[in-house]
Amino acid sequence: MSSSVPPGLSLDTIPSAPPPRGVLPDFIHGHTLGTEIIAVSAVSSALALVLLSIRLYSTLSITRSAWYDDAACVCAIVFSLAYVGLFISIRGHAKHGWDLPVTSYSTSYFKTLLAETMICSFAMLCSKISILLLLHRVFTPVKRFRYCVYVGMLWATAVSGLSIIIAGALCAPRSGESFNSLQVIQRCSHQGTWAVVQGSMNVALDFFILYIPIPMVWKLQLGRKKKWGVTAIFMTGFI
C-alpha cells in the first residue's frame, strides 16, 4: 500500500475515509464514543455478574441442584467479559473514519477484530446452550421436547462453528500476508455477507427457543391465568 503513496506524503496524514463537504479531519480531538463504550460495557458486565451470582447462589446453596446449564452460563459470562475487554481495548477506533489516519488500522487492531469475532461466537453458543439445557432439565420427561432441545443445540453449534471457520478463512493472513495487508482486508470485507446470514439464523433460533416451552406449558394442569403467567415469564426472553 505504501508504494502507491506519493513521495513526501506520510500515511499518518491520510484519513481512512473521506470527510463530508466542509468537514476537516481531526485526528486528535475528533468526536469519539470511547467513554460511552466503557460506561455501557461496565454497567452491562456488572449486571450480568450480579445475575450470575444470584443464580449460582440459588443452585449451589439453596436448591443444591447445579447442573450443566449453570456451567454453560458461567462459560458464556467468561467469554462475554473477554469480548468486552477486547472491545474496550480498541475503543480508540470508535470515531468517524475521517478522524482516524490510515495507520491506525494496525496489525494488532485486525488481530483484535478476529479474536472478537471468534470469542463472540463462543459466548453466543454458550448462552444459547445454557438456556436449552435449562429447558431440557425442566421438561425432560417429554420425549418430543427433548428432541427439540437437541435440534436447537445442534443449530447453535453449527452457526457458531461456521462463524469461527469463516472468520478464520477470510480474515486470518495466509502465507506471505499480514493482518493489515490489502489482500486480507479485501477478503475479510466479504464476511459481511455471512454476518447477515448468521444474524438471520440466530434470530430464527431465538424464536425457536422461545417457542419450545409454550406447548408444554399449555398442557400443564393449570388455570388459564396461571398458564398465561408462565407463558409471559418465558416471553421475557424477547427482551
Task: Describe the protein in words.
There is one protein chain. The chain has 239 residues and is mainly α. It is 66% helix and 0% strand. The protein is built from eight helices and no strands.
- Inertia-based shape: elongated
The main β sheet shows up as: none
Provide the low-confidence segments as ranges: none
Mean pLDDT rating: 88
Number of strands: 0
Strand content: under 5%
Give the topology string: H per helix, E per strand: HHHHHHHH
Quote the distance from N terminus to C terminus: 45 Å
Structural class: mainly alpha
Number of helices: 8
Taking all Cα atoms into account, the compactness measure Rg is: 23 Å
Helix fraction, binned, reads 55-70%
Keywords:
single chain, 239 residues, mainly alpha, 8 helices, elongated
Question: How are the SSEs ordered, and which strands pair?
Answer:
Layout: H1 34-62, H2 68-89, H3 107-138, H4 143-171, H5 182-188, H6 191-211, H7 213-217, H8 224-235
Helix pairs in contact: 1-2, 2-3, 3-4, 4-6
